[in-house]
Amino acid sequence: MSSQSSSPQRKRRRIPSNGDKNKDPGLNNAGIVVNPHEGEHCLSPGRHRVDDAIEGSEAAAGKTPSSRSQVKNVHVHDGGIVATVENIPESVDWPGIKKALEAKLSDLPSDVDGDAVTFATKVDKINRSCCVVFKPFEVDEEFFRHMRFEVEPHVESESTNSVPPGQASVLENDPVASSNNNDDSTVLYELYTDPLYGIDLQEALKRLPAHVLRKRESRAKVERLKRNDSSSGICWPLPECRLPTIPSKASRGRTARLS
């Protein structure tokens, strides 16, 4: 019996030749070639990835957002619309925007208790934009979607001591100066509101004070209760409309004995 044992021979890895490139028609159509040195698939130069091409075709075709994202945005404004106002001129401040929106919303499509505008943030000096919170009402999202309103510029009141006493009588007798003082023409800027969704809405909510968020959440809870009660057949408010109750067995027995 020999002490030498036969060991299995290992097969050497076959290096593909240049003629073996792109034998698979599927790889060739996808723009994928075989690396002759490593035997791995790689992308041919000058061609894009298949996934990038598919995404580009979907974007070119105008692919609509998924239904899941649309469903998530249905009730995000139950507590009130949070809209943004962009491209604000430097001469316009947030009190003027709030005042202009209150005047614009004086005739709403539905009744709102109190002022429709609950809060407005300060104008961002870099982006020249601010966020405004409204109370909820019917068709509010359609109402505030690219709603146009006019706002007056913020004019600082000049002090009475800015005019010297000696020139006060001259200005009163000057017809040109008096006509300029009586000129009521003011410049109005047109701005637009757009409701916020998704990440933009979350970033805007971080800028709101805590008491504004609590009031908005309480209004959202009331709207959810109304929606759930209406879907279950219960009228709102509950004290004005109650479901018919079925008499118990004991009460039916008492009624039968009395009759």
Spatially, the strands of the biggest sheet line up as 4-5-3-7-6
CATH class label of the largest domain: Alpha Beta
Order of helices and strands: HEEHHEHEEHEHHEHHH
Shape: flat
- Beta-strand fraction estimate: 5-15%
Question: What's the β-strand tally?
Answer: 7
CATH topology of the largest domain: Alpha-Beta Plaits
Structural class determined from secondary elements: alpha+beta
What is the makeup of the main sheet? 5 strands, antiparallel
- Helix content range: 25-40%
In the CATH hierarchy, the architecture of the largest domain is: 2-Layer Sandwich
Low-confidence stretches: 36-48, 57-67, 157-183, 239-243
The separation of the N and C termini measures 115 Å
Q: How many H/I helical runs? A: 10
Count of distinct structural domains = 2
According to CATH, the homologous superfamily of the largest domain is RRM (RNA recognition motif) domain
Region (Disordered): 1-49, 154-183
Map the helices and strands.
Layout: H1 25-29, E1 32-34, E2 41-43, H2 50-60, H3 67-72, E3 82-85, H4 94-104, E4 117-120, E5 130-134, H5 140-144, E6 147-151, H6 165-173, H7 175-181, E7 189-195, H8 198-206, H9 210-231, H10 249-258
Antiparallel strand pairs: 1-2, 3-5, 3-7, 4-5, 6-7
